[in-house]
Amino acid sequence: MSRTITRSPQDSPQATQPGESVLSHGLKQRHLSMIALGGVIGAGLFVGSGVGIAAAGPAIVLLFAATGALVMLIMRMLGEMSAARPSTGSFSVHAEEELGSWAGATSGWMYWLMLCAGVAAEATAAGTIMHTWVSFIPAYGWVAIFMVFFCASNLTAVKNFGEFEFWFAAIKVTTIVAFLVLGVLGILGVFGDAPGTSQLTGHGGFFPTGAAGLAAGLLTTISGFAGLETVTIAAAESDNPSRNVARAVRTAVWRIAVFYIGSMAVVVTLVPWNNPKVATEGPYVTVLDRLGIPAAGTIMQIVVLLALLSAMNANIYGSSRMAYSLVHRGQGPRLLGKVTGGVPAAAVLASCLFGFAAVIAGIVWPTTVFAWLLNIAGCAVLVVWSIVCLTQLRMRRRLERETPELLSVRMWGFPYLTWVALVAILGVFAVMAAGADGRQQLAGTAVVVAVLAGAGHLKQRRDQRVAVTD
């Protein structure tokens, strides 16, 4: 039996009613393309990937290739659903329509939590960098400055967010391209002796830390890709959501995979994976120092700072739009649904306040509350991806049956590759469960998921009772 889907007018850029407050459509195709390219390229690549290299050795290249393939499948699913039914709530709206309120609430609020925790972590790291340059202002003072600035910028027209992200992403992409060019020249021996395969096999082999190292590196690579989904949220505020999100997804995913995999291949080919500087100073700085690039540390510190600020900006945007969408579907306090000048001002403020509260928690309770929050946020993307797979399986069949003309983007190898992606995600959960730290992380996440799913289920039951009464 076919289902009739009802959509909140605030969630659909193409269906509004007179007199209702709706979000503006100030983003252009160039904004979305750079959001898709730059939104996932952050400090996790420039610095955090060094932890993965230290854990897995040269095999980190294979881990990024495998994770990149999974991300490409997830983004293809998101592209298919968002191009067919663009929405501010993206996958959360689709999950609610196809699976029920429990799925919409769980995926939406878990994603919101992940982005807000990211805001806190990025603001803290950016404040630390600025304090090393301007020491008379404490790190928490810089955090406050950044939070206020990006909160204010997100309270203005959405095109301002788009412009910030466009130029932030342009700088990051330019840096990576330059790094890849210099790295290839270094591998060819332009900056000295060509390394050949000595670094790949000369320090314990290609798999120097075995299965345990691969497991530890796997979690690092997955967290590095988190945030790419924001482009499907932003597409709803563009002039032609269906066309724009399709283009952004098609052109961005493989480029991002090349950036990550290419960068890791350059690093492990040029420098020993067990060089302490790879983990402490970052793989990019280590390679540039090896090539003799002057002021490499300072250059990369500036780029990392910009990457952190870019991620803060994108996470505040994404979390506010997700909260706005959830509220307008009855999945949160109505106060957060207020729109001013085409911007969900209340949701922006709430997301920033939660992020700042998390920063304070990081100062006061760094090993308890803040660590717990980051652990749950680290698992959130896997929960979201799992629900995306289940949603796409249902939505694709319904679209083929009812409105096949909306399938401008199609998931490859459906349904087989969707199932492959879902099994891969379950495999990551299994790897996490094999370690004590991973089990603790999963336990905390399970509690939050149970609460969110339970609340969503109760709303679903209440809506059904109201429908029967009516």
Account of the 3D structure:
- This protein is mainly alpha-helical and 470 residues long.
- The chain is 73% helix and 0% strand.
- The chain is built from 18 helices and no strands.
- The radius of gyration is 22 Å and the shape is globular.
- The protein starts with 28 loop residues before the first helix and ends with a helix.
Strand content: under 5%
Structural class: mainly alpha
Largest sheet: none
Give the distance, in angstroms, between the N- and C-terminal Cα atoms: 22 Å
Approximate shape: globular
| CA-atom Rg in angstroms | 22 Å
Oligomer: single chain
Mean model confidence by pLDDT: 84
**Secondary-structure element sequence?**
HHHHHHHHHHHHHHHHHH
Outline the low-pLDDT stretches: 1-21
Determine the number of helices (DSSP H or I, runs of at least 4 residues): 18
β-strand number: 0
How much helicity do the residues have? over 70%
